[in-house]
Amino acid sequence: MEVPKGWISLPHIPDAAFGDGSHPTTRLCAGVVDLLSRQEQPRSVLDVGTGTAVLARIARARGAQFVVGTDIDPDALISARTHIALDSHPQKGLSDILISDSPPNHWGARFNLVVANILEGPLRELSSSLSAALAPQGVLLLSGFTRIQVPMLRLIFEGRGLTYLSESELDGWALLMFRRTK
């Protein structure tokens, strides 16, 4: 099947890692990562809970120069590296994706875009680290939870000094977008 002009084709090998692109939270994140990558052209992107690295791969395909995927699951780290190796790089200058089990703030406040598609509990636990990874004016995307969990997550991340931008929903799952304004 031919890929329509402007779309990104990412090969996928079925495995146990989350992130084949079919779950509503992955679809929400993928759409916003693609849109922000084209509109704001972030130079650095962090994909927390990377799974198969689909979100990191979209950011790289759209031109991000420094892309990191992190996960605490050793099988996900293997899956991410395997899927990254499937990508062809017809454009010169596309960077490698760094895969790591380091916490989000390991690289400091350098990411223009941070996306975390993980469950509510880990998002709450990582709220400080996720916020600390954002560069000034950086955007944070959170997904992996339902609408009923939105108010608490919004309160937590606004309490970390982030400005709420928007909320999206797909099939009962939610995505929150914040910006570091300071």
The gist of it:
The chain has helices spanning 24-39, 54-61, 74-86, 120-125, 127-132, 150-159, and strands at 44-48, 66-70, 97-100, 111-117, 134-146, 162-170, 173-180.
What does this structure look like?
Helix 1 (24-39) packs parallel to helix 2 (54-61). It is built from six helices and seven strands. With 182 residues, the protein is of the alpha/beta class. 42% of the residues are buried. 32% of the residues lie in helices and 28% in strands. The model is unreliable at 1-5 (pLDDT under 50). It is globular. The chain has one domain (24-180): Rossmann fold (3-Layer(aba) Sandwich), CATH 3.40.50.
Helix content: 25-40%
Question: What structural class is derived from the secondary structure elements?
Answer: alpha/beta
Give me the strand/helix succession: HEHEHEEHHEHEE
- The tally of beta strands, per DSSP, is 7
Question: Which descriptor suits the 3D outline?
Answer: globular
CATH topology: the name is Rossmann fold
Mean pLDDT: 89
User: If classified by CATH, what would the architecture be?
Assistant: 3-Layer(aba) Sandwich
Return Rg in Å. Answer: 15 Å
Assembly state of the chains shown: single chain
Q: For this structure, what is the CATH homologous superfamily?
A: Vaccinia Virus protein VP39
First-to-last CA distance = 46 Å
